[in-house]
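BUG-209 | component: ligand-complex export | severity: low

The export step for PRP jobs runs without errors, but we want the raw record kept on the ticket for reference. Input record follows.
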Amino acid sequence: MTAKLTVIEHPLVRHKISLLRDQQTKSIVFRALVREIAQLMTYEVTRDLALVDRDIETPVALMTAQVLAHPAPVLVSILRAGNTMLDGVLDLLPTASVAHIGMYRDHETLKAVEYSFNGPPDIADRLNLVVDPMLATANSGIAAIARLKDKGVRDLRMMSILAAPEGLAAFAVAHPDVPVVVGEVDERLNEKGYIVPGLGDAGDRSYGT
Ligand code: PRP
Ligand code: URA
């Protein structure tokens, strides 16, 4: 597994992931839960963001306060399921820019197929937080990070709600420099490349397809 792996050990995250796993959970609740989990994970992922001093005046006194440095991070959503996480991260980082990478898994080969890319022009100069709820084989996450590195991005982090040990191992080989933050690590992948016990297909469960 990756040396830069952080697993969020928090009862709220554990509880909400358990609700996500339940196949009775409807899409509207599923999306709300993913958003809330992403918010909680953002607290951990942004722990070391740079701060700068700013002189402000409170109702009582002048002071030098600390605010987030510019530019804000770029949030990179791997479509489709990444968008449900994206909303939660944006709740806490509203000044972030957003990049979208359209990507799906070929059901036969399990390789990631990219169908679109759209990001800000200065993407290479900014911290990129890549969001995708599922890191299964990690083919999608690995391909997305490779695409961003091709564009010159050097400061990257990967955020996923569920990961398989096989995917984490592959990711660590492909991108040992990139920190990975996950909600939980499950047992294994099945023969179709699904995480076990997992939660099923995150995109389908989010959007009722
Ligand atoms: C899902 C998920 C990840 C990918 C993870 O996307 O959102 O992007 O699978 O699997 P991997 O680690 O084996 O690559 P999917 O391809 O189903 O597309 P969708 O989000 O549009 O449904
Ligand atoms: N993608 C998903 O949405 N779920 C899995 O279990 C594996 C890949």
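Assignee comment: Attached the raw record above. The mean pLDDT is 96.
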